Amino acid sequence: MSVTGEPDAPPTKCGISIVDFSGGILSALALMIGLYRARGTGVGCDLDVSLLDTAISMLTYMAIWTMNRDWRPQRLPEGAHQSLVPSQSFQTRDGWLVIMCMKEKFWERLAERLDLAQLRDDPRFRTFADRLVNRDVLVPILEAEFRRRTTAEWLSRLRGYVPVAPVYTVEEALADEQVRAREMVIEVAHPLFGALREVGCPLKVAGVPPRYIPAARLGADTGELLAEIGIGAEELANLRTRRVV
After folding, report:
1. Residues 6 or more apart whose Cβ sits within 8 Å of residue 197
2. 127-85-97 Cα angle (round to 5)
3. Which among 135, 80, 88, 145 has a CA at the least distance from the CA of 111?
4. Scanning 17, 69, 148, 196, which has its CA 20 to 30 A from the CA of 55?
5. Which domains are seen in the chain, by residue range?
6. Alpha-carbon gap, residue 181 to 175, rounded angstroms
7. Omega of the bond prior to 86 within 30 degrees of 0, cis?
């Protein structure tokens, strides 16, 4: 939270529970590794994944630079990258978009597509190091230019030349043509609620289409599970009558 948000804003949490979700993904990966090891060696093992460890691991380069350099991360306007310029969000005439020039060629193409080729040849902005030192000079020039056109106009001019994307609302993200093409919005028939639209599976496995079914209703497996520990039909009926289960 200390590195998220605008410079003059309070510490800001991520909009989604990113550490919880990442912890789940790492847990699944750990289970796969443990299974692979057990199959190869015949020996099982304990697997330990914590949310704290997950969060620390996701600090990546910020942690390494902090520990090995005289460097501290800072919150920058418009979610700017710590060292790459330009790599941040820019306000357009009617919204926001994100530009990421993580290679010199992208900076050169951006300057050309903005009709600001003179910036590309300006010694103050020639390299990553130059642009970082002169961030406070360069960014206002780009901000003024991006405000001149709409988000759609900029996407038309920049896509295919520079890594660029619009800042969507959740509703807009779910309606995006690439999201639909990737089958990330699917429909599931539910016996009680009818057709429900849900988020699809992000893992694409050749020859193995995802199988989407509604979750079991509350208590659907109670009888089967209790039978496994020796509770028979008569006792289960008694428990249900007493509203124990």
Report:
1. 185, 186, 187, 188
2. 140
3. 145
4. 69
5. 1-75 (no CATH), 77-167 (3.30.1540.10)
6. 10
7. yes
End-to-end CA distance of the chain: give it in Å, rounded: 42
- The count of other CB atoms within 10 Å of the CB of residue 88 is 20
Nearest-angstrom CA–CA distance, 23 and 43? 25
**Helices (DSSP H) in the chain: which residue ranges?**
18-41, 51-57, 60-68, 104-113, 117-121, 128-133, 135-146, 151-158, 170-175, 177-181, 222-228, 233-241
Mean pLDDT, residues 193-217:
93
Q: Which of 37, 17, 200, 167 is closest to 91 using CA atoms?
A: 167
- Rounded to an integer, the average pLDDT of 169-175 is 96
What is the per-residue pLDDT for 96? 97
Q: What are phi and psi of 229, to 5 degrees?
A: -110, 20
* Cα distance between residue 213 and residue 204, in whole Å: 17
pLDDT > 90 fraction of the chain, expressed in percent and rounded: 96
Interval 36-77: pLDDT, tens: 999 999 999 999 999 999 999 999 999 999 999 999 999 999
pLDDT tier at 216 (50, 70, 90 boundaries)?
A: confident
The pLDDT of 99-120, averaged and rounded, is: 96
pLDDT at 1: 93
Assign 149 to helix, strand or coil: coil
- The separation between CA 35 and the C-alpha centre of its own chain, rounded to angstroms, equals 27
